[in-house]
Amino acid sequence: MIDFEMPEVIAKQQYLLKTVADNMMRPVSRYYDEHEHEIPWDYIEFMHTAMKASGAGSLAPSEGGEKKEKKDRPRIGYQMLAFMIEMLSWGDAGMYLVTPGGGLGAAAVEATGTPEQKRRFLERFKKEKPAFAAMAMTEPCCGSDTAAIRTTAVLDKETNEWVLNGEKIFVTAGDKSLTPYEQLEPGFVVVWATIDPKAGRAGIRPFVVEAGTPGVKVTKLEHKMGIRVSDTAAIVLQNARIPFDNILGSPEVITDKKTSKGFKGAMSTFNATRPLVSASAMGVARATLELLKEMLKQEGVEIRYGLPRAKMTNIEREVIDMETMLREAWLLVLKAVWLADQRQPNALTASMSKVKAGEVVTKITQKAVELMGPLGYSRDFLLEKWFRDAKINDIFEGTGQINRLIVARQILGFHGAQLR
């Protein structure tokens, strides 16, 4: 049964993260929004030191660590991450995305890697320097339609190496994961490629491509509407050779839908990370609501809770409706991460939380800008920035439309070919 009482360890973490958000993120939020791609090294180095001290490591719960826990100690790894991400995104969603750690890349290794791969690839996040990892799936020819992935991985039997060719775009933290910055430990990108184009999704596998691999190049950094401090990169792979053991999952292609685990195993990554994206959206939404209420109060408008709706002003009703939406979405996030911690299936709840959070944060930030009028649109306040930051939560790691399809398929018992 879900316990809604915040564990003491999370409460202590929240106190520290609130201090970080207040003192290291909010004061420079506007600066880094206006100086796109400038790297906040002070924040990165501080968070790396703090996470190392607390054992947070790769920003993904480690199975190795779970096994060492006492049997009577509840699993709360994903719940801790959700609260952590919500608070850091309350500080600044873009800066949260440059928090050092494994991100989606480490999550993919955790979800599909062998114990030896987890040790080999995730050990770098415990070293003296910060490190980053990323996931590369989207291509110029395809986004949500992963069956259309054209990046290829061909096994060179003479050298026992995989040879990767293709182009990936919109790779969050791709630059910091691959570029040899002096301040960083070399990272890696998990690249999705097909080992058998004729097999469709059954032929798609994730490969760990490490920084410094010849033939791998960051070709572009995107200029974006929001989360501008976070780098979003385009990556080209030209005859990039990686060791045979850098494939996550089996290289065997099984087209029988009942037995094929390659693509489905890799997709389980998103069941773990979509609720965390939702938690980030909740941080932005909460920050917006708090500032909106503060600005309204300064204008003499206070929300009179407890009155019948008919006796409230329109602004009061709008704010209360936004608060209700926020709490509904947050409860879905909590359920999704609780299921993940319990090792229970959470594909449905993960996608539901992603749909709801993306929709709610977009509505709340847009409505806040509307209610404050010129003040909301002004760069003197962060409302307009949060409005721009919010929309990405309805796009990356599965758009709202794709996640609605996943929810419908889960509820109705249909597979992809039956419901598109």
> What is the radius of gyration computed over CA atoms, rounded to a whole number of angstroms?
22 Å
* Mean pLDDT figure: 91
> Can you name the CATH architecture of the largest domain?
Up-down Bundle
Low-confidence stretches: 63-69
Helix/strand layout:
Blueprint lengths: L7 H18 L3 H6 L6 H14 L8 H5 L9 H20 L6 H10 L2 H8 L10 E4 L15 E5 L4 E12 L1 H5 L9 E7 L9 E7 L5 E6 L10 E12 L18 H37 L15 H28 L5 H26 L1 H4 L5 H8 L9 H13 L8
Parallel strand pairs: 1-4
Antiparallel strand pairs: 2-3, 3-7, 4-5, 6-7
Would you write up a description of this structure?
The structure is a single chain. The protein is an alpha+beta fold and 420 residues long. The protein folds into 3 domains: 8-124, Acyl-CoA dehydrogenase/oxidase, N-terminal domain (Butyryl-Coa Dehydrogenase, subunit A, domain 1, Orthogonal Bundle), CATH 1.10.540; 130-246, Butyryl-CoA Dehydrogenase, subunit A, domain 2 (Beta Barrel), CATH 2.40.110.10; 262-412, Butyryl-CoA Dehydrogenase, subunit A, domain 3 (Up-down Bundle), CATH 1.20.140. Helices cover 48% and strands 13% of the residues. It is built from 14 helices and 7 strands. The protein has helices at 8-25, 29-34, 41-54, 63-67, 77-96, 103-112, 115-122, 174-178, 262-298, 314-341, 347-372, 374-377, 383-390, 400-412, and strands at residues 133-136, 152-156, 161-172, 188-194, 204-210, 216-221, 232-243. The strands form 2 sheets. Strands 2-3-7-6 form a 4-stranded antiparallel sheet. A 3-stranded mixed sheet has the order 1-4-5. A hairpin with a 4-residue loop joins β2 (152-156) and β3. α11 (347-372) packs antiparallel against α13 (383-390) and α11 packs antiparallel against α14. The longest helix is centred in the middle third of the chain and has 37 residues, at 262-298. The chain is globular, with a radius of gyration of 22 Å.
